[in-house]
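User: Continuing from earlier, I have the next pair ready.

Assistant: Great, send them over.

User: Here they are, in order.

Assistant: Folding the first of the pair now:
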Amino acid sequence: MTVTPLEERTPTADVMRALRNSGKWILLAGVIGTAAGLLASVVMPSRWTAKLTIQIGQVAMASTNGVPTKLPIENQLTAAERFNQPSFRLDVLKALGLPQPDTGNKESDLAFDSLRASAERSPDLITVQASGYSRESALTVVDAAFNSFSATHRKLFEQSTETSQSELTRARNSLTAAETEYRNAIAALKSGYAPGASAANNARDILVSNTVSLLRAQVSDLQQQVNAYQDALGPVQSYPTRAMTAAYVPERPSTPSRTTWTLGGAILGLIVGVILALLRDSLKSD
């Protein structure tokens, strides 16, 4: 009698055998996964995310020591927190002419949920971002948010600069008047000077000379004030809240494309099919 040796069995051989026996089911799982990925790409349309970096404005107050005191229009963290408040986002939707969220409008829901601001490393910068179902809609949301945000800052900036401009005008007018008086005093001093003049004339000359000294100091002080206000109002020292650059939106959407969804679904379906095949073979062996 001939004895046939037992076929050698290894874990790898068992796995390959289980996969061969369940090849149709694995293929079916891959097809189902592909269909699910394709359906997900239809149900979840592509989205684009726009980003904009905003520099918070500042105003400078004139100082007698020549170094203006710089004050931000709003604290960076406070500005970011105000930006993230629901009331602010509702104002942005209103400016865009969109209905309130949770009313069935997908554009409105996406804009409200995705609009947010975060503080950057620089103490006067925040980055704003928002998503849309197209590049144009994402840009529109970000631009509307910036306009709404900067409007409040612009009012505060204009009020502050108007006050400084008024003080500059006052200082200039006072300087012009003081310079006129100074020139007149110099002319009077020159016209009244004569060698061998009487004591009364000498006293008059001394009085005019003292007046000239006082006017000279006044002119110097007013000139410093004018220079200080001009420096404080300069574009380097005082500027409104502004966008650092134009808003940026990548050409490709931030969400997976239809191809990615479909391919990912197919791969996931195959993986699930393999796992189920091995589990089924393991239950049979037990």
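And the other member of the pair:
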Amino acid sequence: MSAVVVALVLTAVVAWPSAASRCGWWSRPADLQPPPARDGVTVEDVADASVLLALALQSGRGLDQALEEVAEVAAPGAAEDLIRVAAALRWGRPMSEAWGYARDVWAPTATAFVVADAVGAPSARVLLDAATTLRETEARRLEQAGGSAAVMLVLPLGLCFLPAFIATAVIPLVAVLVGSQLS
């Protein structure tokens, strides 16, 4: 009987977040949200595109040409942003304003371009650093999300297994010890 109760409680605890979120009673913390859909831009897409932009610029391509060529091979959302930026630059917008047409996830890459443009430095090395920074930041975010998920799992496991442990191990042991002491 006790195993059945434990199984029911465990099932309820595991199923609760999914059922409650469908009903609107509970939602996941922001750091545990799934990544955006494929039409959005992930950090990995931006880091990959930044590396490709750096390589294209190192090979002697112009900025507009590099943006367009990388857009041809980039993920759909990243390609869309790169085409917008290339079009804005072609129309004579300043670098900072052109990168304003891209999504917020492009901030390190945009900063690298804006700083390199303002100083007159080659932007390829700065882009590689921006890509590295993006990947490291995403790795830290995933580590934190994994850590908080582990912490969130402790409570249901404790609520399920601690009473079962007490009922199957501690109480019988105490009963035997008390019975042997009384006789």
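Worth noting for the second one:
Residues 40-120 form one domain. The chain has seven helices and no strands.
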